[in-house]
Specification:
14% strand; 16 helices; six-stranded mixed sheet; three-stranded antiparallel sheet; D-Maltodextrin-Binding Protein, domain 2; globular
Length: 403
């Protein structure tokens, strides 16, 4: 009897040790989330506490440089040096998906609650690789003291500017903050695009169409107005804002990040939709989308999916993240109803915004595109020749990458 009792006690002791070690391991386990700005840390930490209550796994939210996030996820280490989840802008996703560094997600019926363009920005080959959190786009700023009614077409903008210049009220129609990202609504309104599409609607990096008619027409409009003296030849973000903020230009194309300096300048402003080549058909800006995605090498991948899909993709969490960060939410109901007048005006300007291409080939576009605009503005090349050269550069670099 004593021998049996001792064996039972020994069994309980062994069980207790195993249970203790198991609990210690579980207690030491955690989900790690990286962000590249501090605004959302508090909200994500609170969301993490709810996750911990159910799964008994703490969530650690840390700020990490954006380049370090990309590097670690591309290494796909799956070690303590790499997070389980991270927030990044969507245009970083192409290379991560190509290298298999991020995991597919499934949000099921919740898809209908998100802005469709925001979901599209994280969708590749019909698969979703990130949950969109916030969107941003530029708007068309105009000075109501100079132009009480915004132009509906780009030719309207030219006529308004010419009249104001004749009266000595302005120096320029506008200056280009850059001739690429900020000016995309103009190229779009002329029918321009950078890449062609596959049959499923996805972008095809092998089809570079930056030198086709719509894009050429957009650059010709800009170059012609440089020659006409309505747009400065110099392309510079700060100079463009100084012209608008000093009342020397009635228009500027700018994003939410420029609001503080525009407000501080004291210049009257309103934010409208972009002109088009025809009234009622405004050009569309690029949409930038920030979202959360999962490392495909995470040893806690199922937990990470539960955190993202159950605890992030719901209205309460999306509201908390919107209030913490201030960027327009990718959650449709929040996007359409909440925000100050300026936020709602940006939303209206970007209602049909085009997700910035995030395929790997887009990385070769920016410099070639900017160079083409500089050549056209200076008159060194015609717009069509400048864009043909840009197309050749993009194709050459893309082919080397894909090889």
């Amino acid at each position: 009897m004593n021998k049996v009792f001792r064996m039972i006690c020994l069994g309980f002791l062994v069980f207790a040790v195993i249970f203790s070690v198991s609990c210690e391991k579980k207690t030491g386990e955690k989900l790690v989330v990286w962000v590249y700005d501090s605004g959302r840390i508090g909200a994500l930490t609170e969301i993490g506490k709810k996750f911990q209550d159910e799964y008994k796994i703490p969530v650690q939210v840390s700020m990490v440089e954006i380049t370090d996030i990309r590097t670690q996820f591309l290494l796909a280490s799956g070690t303590s040096e790499c997070a389980d989840l991270a927030i990044l802008p969507h245009d970083n996703m192409g290379a991560l998906i190509k290298d298999g560094a991020v995991a597919e997600m499934n949000i099921g019926a919740k898809r209908s609650a998100f802005l469709e363009p925001a979901l599209d920005s994280f969708t590749f080959n019909g698969k979703l690789y990130g949950i969109p959190l916030a969107v941003e786009n530029i708007g068309f700023f105009y000075n109501p003291d100079l132009t009480p009614v915004p132009p509906e077409t780009w030719e309207d903008a030219v006529r308004m500017a010419q009249a104001l210049k004749r009266e000595g009220k302005i120096d320029y129609m506008f200056s280009c903050p850059d001739a690429t990202y900020h000016m995309y609504p103009l190229y779009d309104s002329f029918g321009g695009a950078i890449f062609g599409k596959n049959e499923d609607g996805s972008l095809d990096g092998r089809k570079v169409i930056i030198a086709e008619a719509g894009f050429v027409a957009g650059l010709e409009f800009l170059a012609n107005n440089v020659r006409n003296g309505l747009i400065p030849e110099t392309i510079d973000w700060d100079s463009a804002h100084v012209l608008f903020e000093s009342g020397k230009a009635p228009f500027v194309l700018a994003g939410p990040w420029a609001l503080d300096r525009i407000r501080t300048s004291g210049i009257p402003y309103r934010i409208g939709k972009f002109p088009g080549i025809r009234a009622g058909e405004p050009g569309n800006p690029f949409m930038g989308v920030q979202g959360i995605f999962i490392s495909s090498a995470s040893p806690r991948r199922l937990l990470a999916q539960a955190f993202a899909e159950k605890y992030i993709a719901n209205e309460d969490s999306m509201m908390a993240l919107f209030l913490a960060d201030g960027r327009p939410s990718a959650w449709k109901a929040i996007f359409e109803t909440l925000g100050d007048d300026d936020t709602l005006a940006f939303n209206a300007a970007g209602v049909n915004a085009i997700p910035m291409p995030s395929i790997p080939e887009m990385g070769y576009v920016w410099d070639a595109w900017a160079s083409a605009a500089n050549l056209a503005f200076s008159g060194e090349r015609t717009p069509v020749a400048a864009l043909e050269n840009a197309k050749a550069q993009i194709e050459s670099l893309s082919n080397n990458y894909n090889d």
